[in-house]
Amino acid sequence: MPLPIGLSVSTLFPSRQRSNLLDAVFGNRNGQAQTSPAQAVAALRLADTNEARELTAKAREPGVARDLATFGRIVREARSVQDVLRNPAARRVLLTASGLGDQINNTALVDRALQSNPADANSLARRLSSTNAAFLTAAQTFQFAARGLAVIQQEDVLLSVSDSYVSTLRRQDLDTVTPGLSNALAFRETAASLTSEFAILGNPVARDVITTAFGLPQQIAVQPLITQQQAIRSVVDVGRLQDPAYVDNIARRYLIARNSNGVSLTA
Prior knowledge:
Elements: H1 9-12, H2 37-60, H3 62-77, H4 81-85, H5 88-97, H6 107-114, H7 124-128, H8 134-142, H9 144-147, H10 155-177, H11 181-190, H12 197-201, H13 204-213, H14 225-235, H15 244-258
Helix pairs in contact: 2-10, 2-15, 3-5, 5-10, 10-11, 11-13, 11-15, 13-15
């Protein structure tokens, strides 16, 4: 059954590797090795080459395989949305896959946001979307408020969430070797869905990539929203984010900036 309101599973999980995986604005990168700009760009290309093999290897890791198995079992057996959100492993898979991995321990907030009505302008998911659009996207995609478990219990959705979980963990691993590589890869996957400057500002990954790539100061986060929009518009043509070559150029520019002169940025 197709998802309504213009959303599909591919909107939330754009990179779906069929490999039988189940058949805030800013954070901290302390402890990461610093690579040279040239090495960082080379790592981006290598990540593309090795993607399928690395995804398969990650899915087979015992801890990851257990999480995936638990997620699938809990979702299939669940009688309520709470059964899914209150199970630690199922919540970890769902939130990590949905770009909300940093919210895993915020159980009450997650419960309220994902089960709020995304069509309501005053819903928690919509209010949180000004700083993290992932809340609203997840609420719209899974439709817990209107349809309960009907969407997430679809096998295609289960597979998509599981694929995205593994993909996210793999990107995180790459990031420990090449700072910023996870965000660069994630930005390339989702850039086509960013149809306005406000969409960029509401996406923590896109915000980091754009501001870092073009040298916009992090202080713009405390400026009025219209000022932030104008800053983004001054450096990026949103209409061209449908162009893979344009997006790839931004990703490479981001990695170069992220790994230049010992810079240690947060995102």
